[in-house]
Write a structure and sequence with these properties.
By secondary structure, the chain is mainly beta. It folds into three domains: 226 residues, no CATH class; 90 residues, Immunoglobulin-like; 107 residues, Immunoglobulin-like (Sandwich). The protein is built from four helices and 35 strands. The strands form nine sheets. It has an eight-stranded antiparallel beta sheet.
Amino acid sequence: MAIVTHTFLDKTNSIIEGENVNIGMNPILELYYGIPVSRGLIHFDINNIKKKLEDKTYPDITKLHHRLKMKNVAGLRTPYQHRFNKYNEAERAKSFDLVFFTIDRDWDMGGGFDYLKDGYDTVNIIYSEHGSNWYQCKDYTKWANDGVFTREYIQANAMYMQHFDVGNEDIDIDITGYVNECLAGTRDNYGFGVAFSHDLDEIETPALNYVGFFTDHTHTFYHPYVETRYDDYISDDRTNFYLDKDNRLYFYANVGGKMVNLDELPTCCVSCTDVPVKQATKGVYYIEVNLNSSEFEEETMYYDTWSNLKYNGVKLPDVELYFTTKAPRAYFTFGLPYETKKQETIVPSISGINHREQIEQGDVRKINVNCKIAYTTKQQYAVDGLEYRLYSKASDIEVDVIEWTPVERGYNENFFLVDTKELAPGKYFIAIKVMKDMEEIIHRELCEFDILDNKKDLRG
């Protein structure tokens, strides 16, 4: 299933060398070098991804890929704006590497916001020394070393590194190995520490060099998150089964309008031959079949019989489905273009979300992509080569929320799922890309909708 999961960061903090202050509630994760140095702490809860593994929405952990994405505060409009740090003389850092290293213990974000006390005897609620800081991971519990780890440890045990050229680039790193180890239970998830590379971490400069990234406490659209993608998509060939081609035939387990997992993996037989069954996602199973044109007739109906169907301890009768073979020459073309092939322009439309609909945060919507042949009333129900993109806008700048992603091709529909719980409140747009006959045509803003803030925590 190609549903893209966004996991918002649930804890962040910037810890400053030699300081007891906590700024865990600050909207900016601040990193600088040049005496003193600071380091970032970030954490994300993977329980939602675990649940998707357990219910077989994501049935194979090896097909999961994860990327950490955080927006640079200097990358919105111009590389020279947005300075929020304590040190007014700080300059934007350029040409540097950030190191992402694992943390070996639990830590508290804390409730502090600012660096300085107000100078009065009254309590300043935005200043705090509780929670994590340079010396402690939580109240009355010290780090093994001040600043989380020594510089030598960071240099030797960095898991990931990203290079920044101009200095206004966003954090975008592949953390698949770390997250999948946590999901498998072979690593504890305490999150990452973030620091400048070892050579920069030790030098003294006339002015501090600074880079900042939005945290989940930002009031902007740019909430940081871990994006999870599953490297498999439903691509049902039942209505387009070509001889000599690798085809997939799907079996759907549906109870009361909901997809459900069977108690055991079903079995399947095609033309008296048992074919291995795999699970695509929750309640969806498939086989891979290639029928040789020298042995099977074109334009002929064949049957796939599904057995060992058990649900909640009840054995169900076998289910016989069918498919019709198509001539391989309609799919494979070598030499000259297939002469009888017609150039047809596909015009997509969206259903499942109404144009300009206002949606309560938390809905999971199934979006159907309906494809019609231009200048006709002919509808195509399962089309190859469709991708969707979900994006927002900041003034005249388009911001990807979900980059171009294949649309699922079911038995008689094209669709994708959108989980609005993982979208920050705001206005969104959907674009569809049609790739056909060496053409790539983008249909922009087919749907516009708003996610309303239901006053619940975005991290769910």
